Amino acid sequence: MNNLFKALNDSTRREILEILKDKDLTAGEIADQFNISKPSISHHLDLLRQAGLVVSVKDGQYIYYSLNTTVMDEMLKWIISLQSHKNKS
Amino acid sequence: MNNLFKALNDSTRREILEILKDKDLTAGEIADQFNISKPSISHHLDLLRQAGLVVSVKDGQYIYYSLNTTVMDEMLKWIISLQSHKNKS
DNA sequence: AAAGTATTTAGATATTTGTCTAAATATATA
DNA sequence: TATATATTTAGACAAATATCTAAATACTTT
């Protein structure tokens, strides 16, 4: 879960996930939505990929990124397990 | 949500939350469970408190920490909203 | 009041992180 | 094949972070 929490601990990366919610996009299309250089966005995409939160597929000179939410299942379970905690004594 | 993801992006802090799941504990009792200095644990507790994930109550010379999971509601909603994304076209 | 215990604050340091520009790689097109 | 486009890799740098030791604060006990 380390990589996952690390990937989510950045507002730019969280925004990337949000825009991928609607539609798969190329790296360039993603970068166009931020005031950050393309190499920086590329680096963010790499961290998201390492966490498994996005999947990349090459199509010609483009690379399409898409959201993968299944990796969050374990994290969700962890959070929910915390929520069922003891009551005040 | 920034403070929340930041607080969760550290395995020591996540472990602290796990041990507080069972029982409220003093700062010292928490520190005893880690091979990390007390000041460092104190700092971790401060970050958890800033995120609202723990609440501290002073009792004499002790400070009791307890888990507060309600602050994760917004985060959970955000994660779940990501999960209902478009299907592959 | 003095000494002991619990915890935090202050300040230092090494590591990690987010960002940039410049260069490299890969594909497409004229 | 030469040029343009899309993306990443490399290397640098400033800011943030996790940790430490030493000192300060606050409470308790003798």
Automatic annotation (TrEMBL), chains A, B:
Which Pfam families does the protein's record reference?
A: HTH_5
Task: Write down the superkingdom of origin.
Answer: Bacteria
Gene3D superfamilies listed in its UniProt record: Winged helix-like DNA-binding domain superfamily/Winged helix DNA-binding domain (1.10.10.10)
Q: Which UniProt keywords apply?
A: DNA-binding, Transcription, Transcription regulation
InterPro entries, per the entry? ArsR-like_HTH, HTH_ArsR_DNA-bd_dom, HTH_MetalResp_TranReg, SdpR-like_repress, WH-like_DNA-bd_sf, WH_DNA-bd_sf
What molecular function does GO assign, one term?
A: DNA binding
Looking up PROSITE patterns in the UniProt record yields: HTH_ARSR_2
Residues in domain HTH arsR-type?
A: 1-87
Output the NCBIfam families linked to this UniProt entry.
HTH_metalloreg, repress_SdpR
What is the protein named? Regulatory ArsR family protein
Species annotation: Mucilaginibacter frigoritolerans
